[in-house]
């Protein structure tokens, strides 16, 4: 009998064009997503005088430098140039482009799934580490650097070593107020930011099965913060019903063939994983970061550990043994490819409805479509009445490229993915947490345990 | 990219773990074309004050000529920005020695001729003790995967395919074009057997905006 296969094995084999003697595979890329930051790669292919090999499999999205305010009047010359450069590059190479004014513009890892570009069984690359998001659909999806982006543009292929398979199994029911964000921060705190280095992490178990697609995307998105090359979740009915009828999803003629293939995408019983981790959902609390690395995270009702890294504490202005609960914050941010989808906005709005935020904050929906839907549901009114700014979609304060910045020394409760030093602006202090926890922090002006709010529990 | 097999230079130690690519190259400097040079932005916010002046107490600053950087664990984690590698290379760094690297950073490094050499923690600590920043000569040999300082030699780890790539200065696009026939055969099969995987433009790009 043949060796049982992992989901990773199946996806890898399907995309392998050839393999060198040294074990490196040449893989076919089904979707290549480019953004303003891809300018180095376009310059590289221009220098060689080569064209984009498969323009119809390449999609542009303006997100990293997209202004969240006053899109039509960009005053910063460098930002305007970055946006124009992508417009020009996509036009020159006849690449379909969700430009700044396209009705579907948004963050690339939100737009891909919501347009049906992200499908199970595909290989998806983008010059962005959070490409791992798309693994939520059972796609082989990973971030690449500019030289590799140029390679994909020129050949629609990529040389890669197969990562080692790793499985994180989570069983049990999540407690009220505990989300996919908390699952991710929990395992990253457990294993470290390099805990899954060199591995493809497949998430499985009843807790994962019960997650919505939005939640699965949050979990796979954060895989990279634990050092994983990519995250994976086997597609199931939740996946298929999410995809059906999306603009780029297979049409009625091709749907049966797609479903036939997608239904084979799972790890077979007995398949070997290089590493196995089991987590009980009951052990996961609403989790917040205290430091400058995503693994420096603790349950919100916990204390900063005694052996906490001194330099991280100094930067964050905190002390060992200090409670996270009650830590005053200066501002909040709800957005990013991690947590800005409709479900995230609903969760945040539920906490803020009828209340005033004690601190200012910015809400940037994951895409223009998410924004329209949120407005149809009246969520924008909730945020605005609470005193937060309701703006347009883009990477915004997650990476601080578009001019949205946290001032030095300010403490920001954020739904984003990286609490690195200076990530939200030089000297900024970031606390990562779920959208509902950020909303609660806004309501009270400090970090609070969502579970203690009477109207939530 | 030109290949290399041996390198000699002085080393500087930056003994911190988890130096992510946001720290190596802060995002606000990423809009520059490569030709403008990224060297002055290397570790910008760690090594410069808010006025942009170099902080003389920061390890790298007194030793701008060092070409070997010795650091802690998980160097280059986080963002996939290749510009982090440009900042190192444009500053004259050819070798980074660490206990581990972010996966994407390591691939980007090799694609730009920068060696991401992994040493076991004991060896890294031993090497660290042998170094006087900016003074001790260090030599690196890709053929033997060795690092030598003060007559002591350490073996580093790196995927053999990456060693070959660094030595030969291979350009992947040239290599890949040799497989053009296999690629086009794969593509044809793929189009027939996985027709569903080709994005069909039905609604999004050919209609006037207001009808979408």
Write structural notes for this entry.
The complex is a heterodimer of chains A (457) and B (212). Chain A has helices at residues 7-15, 39-48, 77-92, 108-114, 146-155, 180-191, 206-209, 213-221, 237-243, 255-262, 310-316, 342-352, 368-376, 379-386, 435-444, and strands spanning 16-19, 25-28, 31-34, 58-61, 96-98, 123-126, 140-143, 157-160, 164-171, 199-204, 230-232, 275-280, 287-289, 297-299, 331-334, 361-363, 389-390, 411-414, 429-432. By secondary structure, chain A is of the alpha/beta class. In chain B, 30% of the residues lie in helices and 16% in strands. Chain B has a seven-stranded mixed sheet. In chain B, strand 2, helix 3 (83-90) and strand 3 form a beta-alpha-beta unit. At the A-B interface, helix 2, helix 3, helix 5 and helix 10 of A face helix 4, helix 6, helix 7 and helix 8 of B.
How is the secondary structure organized here?
The complex is a heterodimer of chains A (457) and B (212).
Chain A: H1 7-15, E1 16-19, E2 25-28, E3 31-34, H2 39-48, E4 58-61, H3 77-92, E5 96-98, H4 108-114, E6 123-126, E7 140-143, H5 146-155, E8 157-160, E9 164-171, H6 180-191, E10 199-204, H7 206-209, H8 213-221, E11 230-232, H9 237-243, H10 255-262, E12 275-280, E13 287-289, E14 297-299, H11 310-316, E15 331-334, H12 342-352, E16 361-363, H13 368-376, H14 379-386, E17 389-390, E18 411-414, E19 429-432, H15 435-444
Parallel strand pairs in A: 3-4, 3-6, 4-5, 6-7, 9-10, 9-12, 10-11, 15-16, 15-18, 16-17, 18-19
Antiparallel strand pairs in A: 1-2, 2-8, 13-14
Helix pairs in contact in A: 2-5, 6-8, 12-14, 12-15
Chain B: E1 6-14, H1 21-24, H2 44-47, E2 68-71, H3 83-90, E3 95-98, H4 103-110, E4 115-118, H5 121-130, E5 137-141, E6 146-149, E7 152-155, H6 160-168, H7 172-177, H8 180-193
Parallel strand pairs in B: 1-2, 2-3, 3-4
Antiparallel strand pairs in B: 1-5, 5-6, 6-7
């Amino acid at each position: 009998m043949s060796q049982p296969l992992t989901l990773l094995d199946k996806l890898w084999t399907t995309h392998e064009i050839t393999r060198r003697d040294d074990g490196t595979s040449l893989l076919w890329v089904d979707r290549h997503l480019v953004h303003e930051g891809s300018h180095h790669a376009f310059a590289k292919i221009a220098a060689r005088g080569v064209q984009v090999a498969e323009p119809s499999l390449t999609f542009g999205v303006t997100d990293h430098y997209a202004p969240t305010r006053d899109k039509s009047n960009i005053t910063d010359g460098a930002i305007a140039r970055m946006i124009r450069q992508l417009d020009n590059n996509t036009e020159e190479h006849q690449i379909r482009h969700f430009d700044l004014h396209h009705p579907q513009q948004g963050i690339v890892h939100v737009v891909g799934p919501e347009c049906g570009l992200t499908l199970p069984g595909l290989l998806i690359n983008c010059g962005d580490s959070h490409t791992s998001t798309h693994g939520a659909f059972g796609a082989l999806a990973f971030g690449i650097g500019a030289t590799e982006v140029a390679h994909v543009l020129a050949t629609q292929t990529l040389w890669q070593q197969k990562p080692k398979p790793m499985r994180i199994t989570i069983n049990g029911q999540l407690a009220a107020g505990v989300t996919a964000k908390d699952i991710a921060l929990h395992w990253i705190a457990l294993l470290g930011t390099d805990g899954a280095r060199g591995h493809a992490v497949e998430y499985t178990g009843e807790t994962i099965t019960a997650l919505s697609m939005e939640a699965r995307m949050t979990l796979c998105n954060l895989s990279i913060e634990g050092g994983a090359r990519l995250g994976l979740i086997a597609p199931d009915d939740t996946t298929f019903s999410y995809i059906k009828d999306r603009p780029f999803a297979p049409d009625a003629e091709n749907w049966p063939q797609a479903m036939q293939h997608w239904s084979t995408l799972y790890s077979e019983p007995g398949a070997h994983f290089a590493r196995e981790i089991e987590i009980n959902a009951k052990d996961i609390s609403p989790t917040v970061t205290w430091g400058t690395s995503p693994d420096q995270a603790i349950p919100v009702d916990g204390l900063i550990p005694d052996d906490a890294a001194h330099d991280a504490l100094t930067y964050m202005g905190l002390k060992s043994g200090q409670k996270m609960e009650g830590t005053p914050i200066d501002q909040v941010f709800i957005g990013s490819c991690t947590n800005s989808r409709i479900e995230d906005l609903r969760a945040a709005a539920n906490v803020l409805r009828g209340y005033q935020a004690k601190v200012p904050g910015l809400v940037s929906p994951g895409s223009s479509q998410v924004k329209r839907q949120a407005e149809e549901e009246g969520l924008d009114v909730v945020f605005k009445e609470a005193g937060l700014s309701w703006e347009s979609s883009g990477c915004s304060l997650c990476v601080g490229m578009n001019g949205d910045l946290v001032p030095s020394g300010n403490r920001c409760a954020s739904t984003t993915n990286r609490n690195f030093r200076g990530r939200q602006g030089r000297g900024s202090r970031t606390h990562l947490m779920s959208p509902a926890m950020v909303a609660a922090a806004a309501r009270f002006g400090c970090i609070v345990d969502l579970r203690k709010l009477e109207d939530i529990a | 990219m030109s290949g290399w097999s041996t390198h000699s230079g002085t080393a500087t130690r930056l003994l911190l773990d988890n130096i992510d690519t946001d720290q190596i190259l802060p995002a606000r400097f990423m809009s520059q074309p490569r030709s403008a040079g990224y060297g002055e932005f290397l570790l910008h916010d760690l090594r410069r004050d808010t006025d942009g002046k170099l902080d003389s107490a920061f390890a790298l600053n007194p030793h701008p000529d060092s070409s070997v950087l010795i650091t802690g664990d998980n160097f280059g984690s986080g963002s996939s920005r290749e510009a982090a590698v440009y900042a190192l290379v444009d500053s004259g760094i050819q070798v980074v020695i660490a206990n581990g690297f972010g996966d994407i950073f390591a691939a980007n490094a090799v694609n730009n001729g920068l060696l991401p050499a992994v040493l076991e923690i004991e060896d890294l600590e031993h090497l660290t003790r042998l170094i006087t920043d900016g003074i001790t000569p260090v030599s690196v040999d890709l053929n033997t995967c060795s690092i030598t300082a003060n007559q002591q030699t350490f073996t580093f780890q790196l995927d053999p395919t990456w060693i070959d790539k660094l030595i030969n200065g291979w350009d992947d696009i040239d290599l890949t074009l040799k497989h053009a026939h296999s690629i086009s055969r794969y593509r044809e099969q793929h189009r027939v057997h996985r027709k569903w995987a080709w994005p069909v433009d039905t609604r999004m790009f050919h209609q006037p905006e207001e009808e979408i």
